[in-house]
């Protein structure tokens, strides 16, 4: 598995300039620790630190920051979509990222493969309310639609007590179940990414 790379987009509603810590960042970092044990090099960006224009094209012009982020997504072997739950839904920032990936549908090569073909995607979710399974389902469907491969056990989450005030970043230790799940996500994603790197999808003959 050595030589694999993972790139995460933190789709928090908090930009780094606000100097606020992010539970989404912490969960992604905990996943990175599991990846790094398996020889995967990891990097992350907060989506809100970049001017990602609304739209469904790969380049919306006028200072759009998405093309550079898009390239980093596609350069990595594993894409990590990291996001919070708000009102039981994926964050609006995550939805914008997924909308921009809609362009992959029309960017197939001569064998019908989308740009994300052969790339693995996983999703990590934090929130203070129920809804993690729903959010995972929405994200997995979208990522699969635009060509990513979803491994088994590809999602990890933490949700606090309903109407509670404790955030994931406030926990003194990572809960055992979350830690175990992150290890499984990293293990399966790295295994699948290594297989796809050596044996890519053949596509279809035109």
Topology at a glance:
Elements (H helix, E strand, L loop, with lengths): L4 E6 L12 H14 L4 E6 L19 H10 L2 E9 L2 E2 L1 H10 L18 E8 L4 H14 L9 E5 L16 H23 L8
Helix pairs in contact: 1-5
Protein name: Flavodoxin family protein
Pfam family, one: FMN_red
GO molecular function, one term: oxidoreductase activity
Describe the 3D structure.
The protein has 206 residues and is α/β, with parallel strands linked by helices. It has a single domain (5-198), classed as Rossmann fold (3-Layer(aba) Sandwich). It contains 5 helices and 6 strands, in the order E-H-E-H-E-E-H-E-H-E-H. Strands 1, 2, 3, 4, 5 and 6 form a 6-stranded mixed sheet that branches. Helix 4 links the parallel strand 5 and strand 6. Helix 1 (23-36) packs across helix 5 (176-198). The longest helix is centred in the C-terminal third of the chain and has 23 residues, at 176-198.
Rg, Å, rounded? 17 Å
The helicity comes to 25-40%
Q: What is the CATH C level class, in words?
A: Alpha Beta
How many helices? The count is 5
Amount of beta strand: 15-25%
| Largest sheet features | 6 strands, mixed
Low-confidence stretches: none
Protein name: Flavodoxin family protein
GO molecular function: oxidoreductase activity
Quick structural summary:
GO terms for molecular function: oxidoreductase activity. This protein is an alpha/beta fold. The chain has helices spanning 23-36, 66-75, 92-101, 132-145, 176-198; strands at residues 5-10, 41-46, 78-86, 89-90, 120-127, 155-159.
């Amino acid at each position: 598995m050595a030589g694999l790379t993972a790139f995460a987009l933190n789709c928090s509603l908090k930009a780094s300039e606000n100097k606020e810590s992010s539970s989404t960042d912490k969960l992604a970092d905990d996943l990175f620790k599991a990846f790094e044990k398996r020889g995967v090099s990891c990097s992350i960006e907060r989506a809100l630190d970049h001017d990602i224009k609304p739209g469904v094209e790969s380049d919306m012009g006028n200072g759009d920051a998405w093309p550079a982020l898009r390239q980093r997504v596609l350069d990595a072997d594993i894409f990590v979509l990291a996001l919070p739950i708000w009102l039981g839904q994926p964050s609006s920032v995550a939805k914008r990222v997924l909308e921009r990936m809609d362009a992959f549908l029309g960017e197939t090569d001569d064998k019908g493969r989308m740009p994300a073909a052969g790339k693995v995607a996983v999703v990590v979710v934090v929130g203070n309310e129920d809804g993690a399974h729903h959010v995972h389902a929405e994200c997995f469907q979208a990522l699969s639609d635009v060509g990513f491969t979803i491994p088994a056990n590809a999602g990890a989450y933490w949700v606090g007590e309903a109407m509670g005030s404790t955030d994931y970043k406030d926990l003194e230790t990572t809960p055992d179940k979350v830690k175990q799940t992150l290890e499984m996500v990293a293990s399966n994603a790295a295994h699948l990414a290594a297989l796809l790197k050596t044996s890519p999808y053949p596509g279809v003959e035109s």
